[in-house]
Every structure is written in C-alpha cells, then in structure tokens.
Design brief:
Blueprint: H1 2-11, E1 19-23, H2 29-34, H3 40-49, E2 59-63, H4 69-75, E3 84-87, H5 94-103, H6 111-115, E4 141-144, H7 151-171, H8 176-192, H9 199-214, H10 238-244, H11 269-276, E5 285-288, E6 294-297, H12 300-310
C-alpha cells in the first residue's frame, strides 16, 4: 500500500496550471515545495534517492502546466531569463534611483519611493532604528527580468546585498545608532570625494570630516545642501548649491553642528570603510582642483592659498 502511494506521488500531477514562484536566497527544496502542499514524507524519500545535482538560486521560476515532481525539479534548474541590468551608482540618493527606474520603463515615477515605505524591515537588524531604508539600498549592478520586475523585489535584493557585503562583514558588532552614524558620514564622504580619488584619499577626507565633528566644527560639506529639496544628483548643480548655501535647515552643514538629520546617499564600501578606518593626518581642509585632483591644508590660511592657486 505504501509503495503504491509513493509511486502514485512520483507520477501524479502536482501543478495543474502554469505558475511562477519566487525562490528566496537560502531556500531548500523542502521550503520551496512547502507552499505546494506536497506530502512531506514522500518528498523526503524522493529527494533522498533522487537528490538534485544542482543548487537553488534566488530568482523567479516558471512551473509548467501539469508538472510532476520530476518536472518541478527540472524547472528549478532554469531561472527565468535575466534580460537586463540595473546599474545603481554609489553616490545616488533615492530620487536618483526612482528616476533611473522610470527612465528604464521598469517603474512609474515615484512608485519606487512609495514602495520603500511598505517593506517589512524586521528581517534586517541594521534597520531597527531608522525611519527609512533608503540609505541601505546597496549600489551595485543587478541582473533583472523586465517582464517580472517589481519594486518590492528590487528593494529586497538591494537590502540583501547590503546585509551580505556590508553589515555581515563590517557592521555586525556595531549598535544600530553607530551604524546610522557611520552610514550618515559615509554618505557625505561619498559625495565629497571624487570618483578618481584613491581609497587612501577617500580615507583622508573621511578623517578630516570626522575630526571636524569630534572638535565641534561645522563640517561645511556642501554636498549636503541639496538633499532636503528631494532632487536628483543631476539637479544638484553648483548653481543650485550656491543659491541655497546659506539656507538654514536640518541638512545644511554650514548651519548645523554635527551630522545632518539623515544620510544623503547610498555610500559604497570604500566610503564606509574610510569612515570606520580613516587615515589620520594633520589636515583640516581639502579641495579638488579643476582637474579633480585633491589638495589638503592644515589650517585655513593654507586652504585659502590652495583656493587661490588651484581654483583661479
């Protein structure tokens, strides 16, 4: 009787209509099929003697009409095609990402931003004391499928990436308050440094800004000026900064002591490491010349000399 039931199980149609399923990172064959309500005893026996010769990958899969257990396993070998790449840059903010996705026809304008407000954050310990998950959307190149793309999936993909590449390796021993302060300063370093700067130069800039904070200076990081206006980095022009440089708000670091109210961008691992492990120097000032080379100064007099020498 048992043998007959087991044989029936292996040949029975378990998926009558074509359907798509999403396999999460770290899923097992047992967890995938739990929602399909398969007989657990028969499933264990089948997998014991017919162990799949591949590992599950996180993505969407299509289960064909009238699939048996063998058909399901075969379908799980073939993720739905990745037909595009989404490139999220390091110094972008949430408005940049939203604009990028709308230009790619992957999401309607503002829908990505709205989606960030409806994600369950309980599985991410680094989000326990933050009001927004925006600054933890890790910048990277992501494989996507245009036909089944969703903002919710993409957001979780970026948060998982932050967890694996940043939190688990650099921040796991830090408190939520420390993590937010690190990301906050790293987001400023990301925009204050130039893409051509070496890791050492980024670390020196991080040290200068940290030293200003510790010694209760206004940190005078003009990169923070644009964020409260909810605009993209492209819209944050030198003219816009100059027009609003003396506006008093919770982000203008010429007007407030300490860090701005929140981070201002999604920082890279280089900027985050620079904040955690800055390179100590005697400098208090820095500037980039017209060729984007960075120059340092110990005091304001030297800084003015650098301005006269390299910016005029």
């Amino acid at each position: 009787m048992f043998y007959w039931s087991y044989t029936s199980f292996t040949n029975r149609v378990l998926v009558e209509k074509e359907q798509k399923i999403y396999v999460k990172n770290g899923s097992t064959f047992y967890s995938v099929w739990k929602n399909l309500e398969l007989n657990e005893t028969f499933l264990k026996i089948y997998l014991r003697y017919n162990k799949p010769d591949f590992e599950l990958k996180e993505w969407y899969y299509k289960l064909k009409e009238n699939s048996t257990i063998k058909d399901i396993i075969e379908s799980l070998k073939k993720p739905t095609n990745w037909d595009k790449k989404a490139v999220i840059l390091e110094w972008w903010n949430i408005y940049d990402i939203d604009n990028y996705l709308s230009e790619k026809w992957l999401s309607k304008k503002w829908n990505f931003i709205k989606a960030t407000q409806n994600i369950n954050t309980s599985e991410y310990p680094f989000l326990s004391q933050v009001k927004s998950l925006e600054w933890f959307l890790y910048p990277d190149t992501y494989d996507i499928n245009e036909k089944i793309f969703s903002n919710e999936w993409f957001i979780k993909k970026m948060l998982d990436n932050f967890y694996n590449k940043i939190y688990s390796k650099l921040l796991k021993e830090k408190s939520p308050k420390e993590i937010l302060e690190i990301i906050n300063l790293a987001s400023i370093v990301e925009k204050e440094a130039n893409v051509s700067d070496s890791e050492e130069e980024v670390s020196i800039i991080a040290w200068i800004l940290k030293k200003r904070l510790v010694e209760w200076w206004y940190i005078w990081a003009d990169a923070t000026v644009c964020y409260p206006y909810k605009i993209t980095s492209k819209e944050c022009t030198p003219k816009f900064v100059n027009d609003n440089i003396f506006e008093k708000n919770e982000y203008n670091t010429r007007k407030i002591l300490w860090l701005p109210k929140t981070p201002i961008s999604n920082p890279s691992i280089i900027s985050i490491k620079a904040v955690i492990y800055p390179k100590e120097t005697p400098y208090y000032f820095y500037l980039h010349d017209n060729n984007w080379k960075v120059h340092y100064a110990v005091n304001n007099e030297e800084h003015i000399e650098n301005k006269n020498k390299y910016l005029r």
